[in-house]
Amino acid sequence: MAQPDSFDAVVIGGGIVGVCVAMCLVRRNAGISVLVLEKEDRLARHQTGHNSGVIHSGLYYRPGSLKARNCVQGRERLYRFCAENGLPHERCGKIVVAVEEMQLEALAELERRGKANGLAGMESLDERRIREYEPHAAGIAGLWIPQTGIVDFARVTETMAQRLKEGGGKVRLKAEVKKVRRQGGEYRLFTTAGEVRAPVVINCAGLYCDRVARLCGADPGVQIVPFRGEYYQLREERRHLVRNLIYPVPDPEFPFLGVHFTRMIGGQVEAGPNAVMALRREGYGRLSFSPADSLGILTFPGFWRLARKYVRTGLREYHRSFSKKAFVRELSALLPPLEVDDLVRAEAGVRAQAVTPEGKLVDDFHIVEMEGAIHVLNAPSPAATASLSIGETIAERAGALLR
Questions:
Q1: Of the residues 119, 175, 193, 261, which has the maximum number of CB atoms within 10 A of its CB?
Q2: Is residue 69 part of a domain?
Q3: Domain match, 214 and 239 both
Q4: Is 45 within 8 Å of 235 (Cβ atoms)?
Q5: Coil, helix or strand for 129?
């Protein structure tokens, strides 16, 4: 019987965070062997490959939080990485628009947070200045944030994988982790592509990170509840309605940013997403359903506590999911010339949202360490923007485990 492959460290998950962690590991520790395990036949198949490619500025996040620190640091590292590797990207800026007076206080709070997070060059906008940035947008006040940009994160991930391989690391596709044993100071990982062993495991499994943590013997303390974000795209002849990025003032009680307009690096303009609970962890379709995933959600006490808190918001999101007119109505508050026929359906994405047993949506990055393992248990937006900062931090911790 062939001996299982052995590595110094194994990263589970081939999204941008997992690949970046592995790349940073080989950069920091010359000569170590690192393997990325990805269950799909290509990298960036899920969250990384289904977002709209926004390089976030750090505007929204509570000063001092992991999101704020990693986003601000990671943003500039990402811009440099793209420039050094010839990846198409653009620092185009965005506007956040208040459409009614009750949003003005929240808009002012965003500006305070932005300043606390070191965002220079922000500009408060009146109606006239909003139109100068986005001639077809409407609002009574706004905020211009110049640090925001756009990129293709799937291409960024592929380039990181190339740098990983150049440093001696490896990527194994179609390798789903089915069982894990801790034995003799190392982990034995039984995958659909064979067994591998390593003293250090880093769990970046995204939609399945809580399940992988349990396979490794850890109590994640949270459960992943999948939220589907559905998008439309502007028809090509109507793309001129949006120059760059137009965002609403978000609901401060809900960790989603609201439906917005995003010009993508390929020239398309996306509109969305909404945020509806999915009944399957990879539930990209409105009718996607998994009995096992649904049972896991419905038997989780935190889900029912969450549902009671957000029942009205949830019903409104579901209504928009099945009603294009309702979706357009929400969007047209930002862009009055928008009409129903201007939009066509685009791909949806699924966000791996960690929820506590008390029903709280975990708003910050959540990383848990145990003997020989690091589990990334909540890494929603701006994780792609912050990937190089997160990657360096986790690589440093993993390096300490290897010594």
A1: 261
A2: no
A3: no
A4: no
A5: helix
Structural domain for 121, as ranges: 94-146
Q: 159 and 104 in one domain?
A: no
Residue 361 · residue 227 · CB < 8 Å: no
Residue 70 half-sphere exposure, CB side, CA atoms within 13 Å?
Answer: 23
CB atoms within 10 A of CB 182: 15
162 is written with which tokens?
């190339």
Residue 140 falls in which region: left (phi positive, over 0), alpha (psi -120 to 50) or beta: alpha
81 domain residue, yes or no: no
Backbone angles phi, psi at 315, to 5 degrees: -65, -40
Task: Quote the tokens at residue 102.
Answer: 């009750």
Domain boundary among 328, 343, 361: 361
Place of tokens 């939080």: 65
Sorting pLDDT into bands at 50, 70 and 90, what band is 56?
Answer: very high
DSSP 177-245: EEEEEEETTEEEEEETTEEEEESEEEE--GGGHHHHHHHTT---SSEEEEEEE--EEE-GGGGGG-SSE
Residue 56 belongs to a domain: no
Which residues, at least 6 apart from 10, have a Cβ–Cβ distance to it below 8 Å? 34, 35, 36, 37, 187, 189, 196, 198, 200, 201, 202
**Beta strand 186-191 pairing with 177-183:** antiparallel
Q: Count of domains in the chain?
A: 3
Shared domain check, 159 and 138? no
Contact 342, 234 (CB under 8 A): yes
374-390 pLDDT, tens digit per residue, is 999 999 899 999 999 99
Give the relative orientation of helices 387-402 and 16-28 as an angle to the nearest 10 degrees: 50
Q: Are residues 213 and 168 in the same domain?
A: yes
Note whether 352 and 209 are within 8 A (CB).
Answer: yes
With respect to residue 340, please indicate whether it lies within any of the assigned structural domains. Answer: yes
pLDDT per residue as tens digits for the range 110-163: 999 999 999 999 999 999 999 999 999 999 999 999 999 999 999 999 999 999
**Burial class, 171, CB count within 10 angstroms (exposed 0-12 / middle 13-18 / buried 19+):** buried
Mean pLDDT of 240-268: 90
Dist. CA 263–CA 341, nearest whole Å: 19
β-strand partners of 245 = 262
pTM of model > 0.70: yes
Q: What is the spatial distance between Cα 138 and Cα 132, in angstroms, rounded to a whole number?
A: 11
Average pLDDT for the chain: 95
At 170, give phi and psi (nearest 5°). Answer: -130, 155
